[in-house]
Amino acid sequence: MNRRLYPTAVILAILVGVISCEESDAPIQDSFDRSEMLENMAQNLIIPAYTELQTAVNALESRAEEFTQNPDLNSLDALHEAWGAAYSSWQYANAYNFGPAGEDGIRRSLLEEVGTFPVSVEKIETAIIGSPNFNDFNRDARGFLAVEYLIFGTENTDEAVVETFSSQNRKDYLLGAVSDINRRIGEVLSAWNGGYTSEFIQNDGTDVGSSTSMLYNEFVKSFESAKNFKLGLPLGRRPGQTQAEPQLVEAYYSGKSTEMLGLHLTAIENSWHGRSRQGQNGLGFREYLESVEGGQALIEATEAQMAEVKAALEDLPETPPLAELIQISPAPADRLHTELQKQTRFFKSDMSSLLGISITFSSGDGD
Fold first, then answer.
1. Checking CA distances to 236, which of 203, 281, 321, 359 falls within 20 to 30 Å?
2. What positions does the domain Imelysin-like occupy (predicted)?
């Protein structure tokens, strides 16, 4: 080689190497259309979920009015059925606590305002004989689970529940609690049907505050809520607990804990697939992962673990009620909690890393 050309060749080689390194270290750019995913989520999952929920709560309010006008076993049975339908619909909407359903001043998220459990019997009973206020800080004295306590009661007989509604104050509290749920859900749905949907779809980045970030964070948060509070807490698996506390299950008074947990996990799976409650498939987190390097492997691992969760859920008997099951035979619930714990890393750590979306909440989960 010509010695005069040697330094030039070395410099060129170095430059090429530097450029190559810069290119390989650059973040992987995906071609995924996040706005299309957001549109599918808004139009086929979120808005339908809130629409169906409001329809169900309207029916619940009608049944509550009929019951308070004529408290008997037939009207109570109709009220029980309406509550079950409304709370089932709630399981498909409770993962969208952002935007219109998010915190605003002293108002907490819709989940906290209408879905807080366990409720405080003492606060509810005190409010019944006092001056009910459905806008104070006592969120454990209102919402779906406060209504559940009122209409299912603690005496285990419908006759005893009907007897308690000889009190006009109790009737008024029930009607006020249901009306408050309806109002809050109506405000959220109106906002989505108004200008928020366009705002949501257009805000298609991945930074904190973007629709993608809010959607993903609430997806993970909702999953952890099912794992930690609907199962882990009554099992006594949360930090600081030394024993099971079965009375802390969701839907304790109606005995529908297992049913509602199953619906909640189905709603989580639907968000993963971008699939409506009626089974219509669209773009979801699964398709988003397909567009990034390493995404397919994560999909396979995630769905393999989801299958384990579903198998454990199927082995969880619907009777006796979950609170009783935890006392007499906790093994099936323990197994489900273990499988949900294994699922956490895929939904939370690995997805966050591959998609480049930061976790913006603290769950205290230790993972």
1. 359
2. 46-343
Distance CA 104, CA 98 (A): 10
Q: In terms of C-beta density within 10 A (0-12 exposed, 13-18 middle, 19 or more buried), how is residue 179 classed? A: middle
Give CA–CA dist 185/42, Å, rounded: 16
CB-based contact 260:87 (threshold 8 Å): yes
User: Within 10 Å of residue 290's Cβ, how many Cβ atoms?
Assistant: 14
Find out whether the peptide bond into 320 is cis, omega within 30 degrees of 0: yes
| pTM given for the model | 0.90
Evaluate if residue 282 carries a pLDDT over 50.
yes
What is the C-alpha separation between 254 and 118, in angstroms, rounded? 13
Instruction: Looking at the structure, give the CATH architecture of the domain made up of residues 30-203.
Output: Up-down Bundle (1.20)
For 120, left (φ over 0), alpha (ψ -120 to 50), or beta?
A: beta
